[in-house]
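Quick entry between incubations.
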Amino acid sequence: MDYALHLMVMVLIYASLVVSLDLLIGHTGILSFGHAAFYGIGAYATASLTVYAGWDWFSAMIAAAAIAAAIAALVGIPTLRLGGDYFILSMFGFQLIVITLILNLDPITNGPFGIRNVPRPSIGSWHVPSGVGMLLFIAAVTGIIFFVHWRFARSPMKAMLHAIRDDEAVAMSLGIDVVRTKILVFAIGGAFAAVSGSLMAFYFRFVTADSFVLATIILLWAMLFVGGSCSIAGAIVGPAILVLFPEVFRFVGGEGLDIPNIQEALYGLLLILLMIFRPQGLVGRRAG
Amino acid sequence: MNDTTRRTVKRLAIAAAVLFAGIGAANAQEPISLGLIMPLSGQNGDYIKRYVLAGHELAVKEQNAKGGILGRQIKLHIEDSRSDPATAVSAFNKLINVDKVKAVFSIFTPFTLPLLPIAAEKKVIVLAPSVEHPDLTKSPWAIRMTPTAAMNGVFIGDQAHKMGLKTAAIIEEDNEAIRVSAKAFAAEFEKMGGKIVGDETFKNQATDMRGQLTKLRAARPDALYLLAPSGRPVALLLKQIREVGFKPKQIFTTHLVEDREVIALGGDMAEGVIYTAVATTPEFNQKFKAGYGYDSDVNAGKHYDSTMVLLQAIQKVGSDKDMAKVRDAMYNWGAYQGTIGTFKFVGSGEAQISPILKIVKGGKYIRYQP
Amino acid sequence: MLLLQLFINGLANGALYALIAVGFALIYNGTRIFHIAHGAVFTFGGYALYLLALPLGLPWIVALPAAIVATAGFGALMDALVYRPLRKRGTGPAGMFIASIGALTFAQATYALIFGTDTLNLHQGGLPTFDVGEITVTAVHVTAAVVALVVFPALQLFLSRTRWGRAIRALADNPRLAVVRGIDAERLYILIFALGSAFAGLAVVIVAFDLGVRPDLGFTVMFVALVAVIVGGVGYLPGAAAGGFLLGVTQSLSLWQLSGRWQDVVVFGLLLAFLAFRPQGIFGHMLVTRRV
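Done. Structure below.
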């Protein structure tokens, strides 16, 4: 059933975003508000390169990741050096800047109306069929992203990032180049977010700035904390709950009841209660 | 045949008749499923529920009271797109797979365009009466019913010239459909010998346009054309025009001057403004008021009309099994007398309708007779 | 003349931005909480004013201060109900932030459920305006400027001369040391939230006359506050105010030569420039000695 397929795809794409966000927030302590911006940059770069420049899907996806990584490094260099306060606010600002640029750079982004007709991934003249085909494609790419993060979690690098997260001064005294490492991790995170953006572009075949607004990064943070940080399972559980929970409301009737706003109110309440009573999320290993 | 055989055949015939009648009855019970996906929460939520959704619901209720279409009741499944394209797509998929809808009503470009590839695959009609983006009708499964943005601009340009206004300025929201209106206006006005002396833009969600208005004031235009895609910026503009002391001889705008946001401003902010509109018939307004307790507006009428046209097309084709046939019926309908005027379906998913001119006089909206 | 008018408009908007930025910065610097729900507190003040003035029919002279006090109370309430339980648990900044998002979402949805999403206007028709030669200013703008001129020095005096004020600065500077020195942190948090929210209340009662009240009124305002705080420098209140004014003026002056389409780009370009070349903001270097 396409409805179920669609929901699975959304959960997978969000999961791929949350697992890379976890690398930044959960493991390294980089409280990044810019993740949705890199998601957007990836989606737009992919769409732009395939639709306007005629690139093939694979090169476009790789290029998008590289562009995002480069931008992340550029943005990270001045901001990661300073305290957490600055960084949070800077990333907020960065996210706003990216949206504004997307809406104004008409030649590349088609302004407020977005880019249509993004081609499906293909080999030669065979295109991945929509429906189950796209689900498998997205599952495959998400699987690769998860695999990389899972390997990382079993590597010695994890300890290094945790040291930075827990106490930068101590990490430095242990000989870790904190700033350089943070920039590197930030760039890697950006690259992964961009790949998620490519997936989104291939699936919807249409990119619009509405998909990368403030509400998106807020949703990603919520997914991370509902599932639980520092956890591969959490990166699936969080998105699953926050994608499926609102869908349940579609089946709940209600003549005259303002369901959408009631839903929003419950969502807000859920976040507050979660932080008070179960801050480590459902399956996480660390409290926020 | 002997008697026994004859009796058996008779019994079988009766049984078959009952069986077929039963199947027929079962089909008669199966409702005609239509869907609606719109942002029902969020900033425009209230307006959409009160007028747009109301227009669709009124049409469905009315038709059901008359016995439905093809003897079947019509069921409208309503979904909230929450101003998010991905949610709109989820809703669309759910409506198609779970509720088995045959056509979906939609609004706003960013939440409608993503539905089109799926609509083409699943052969579901997307009826977006108010979406003005040119790309909408590139898909053979999308239909709209609105005066085009260009048409509005041309009408006003023409009118400005007729009134003897020599110079004009434009204040517009940064939006592609709006730009089309503005360009059409400028082209028409200049063709007639007028001169455009200023053209300022403001962003969506901006609340302070005084800077732009001050710039335009300095250019001293005879006419000012005010363009925005929703009521709130129109209201803010009318207010701020007063506040910066800008007094052009004539202000033009679109039907949004009748929007609740402008009315809520109070005072005589809109007095004397001439605008393009389509008018709802008094009969429709009476029906609407009886059903909902407040006056209708042009969006209610338009969306009511779109529902009725679809239902009549299904009636004409005789079934809702092959929506391609229903789509073709709509495409080639020719003239359709709606509550807001006569639509001309010209075979491309565009239903052309000419705007009329109205003016705000004494706080009332009346037809403008020059 | 056009340039001067644009500059005056910019200062007027800047005064409002400054009020909002200072309220947010006070809370952020004093408590380290990224109180994004400040936007919802702002909006609450608007609805409070509307209710006090219209259905309840109180005269403005009573309704206005009452609304400001109500806003201050709402902010303090939010701290008591949302942030204090988290502090007791030892929740870190990320968790506080998620809770703040929850509070903002909940509040906004509740406003929509109770009041609907249409704008509620406090004032019919256009605002009264004053003309000085060829320059026009609205009453709202004049009020914003006057209020800012009075309130900022007052805040400064409060923070430097009173016992409570100095306690807030101590807490902002070094929370652990402050507690060791006997400062009752919890009571101080209530005060900080009340004070910061009062500023939001002050700003919203002015803005509400101009724009009316809607559930999302505070959302867009928050962006402005954030930009102002970054530009002005995190950790220094006068910097936040200066950031607000700079932002207002830049936004307005950009119209002089550029189309309104680029207004946002100019603002964020300013932000980007600060992030790239001076992330600590205009006054950031003062951080070594002052946090508030």
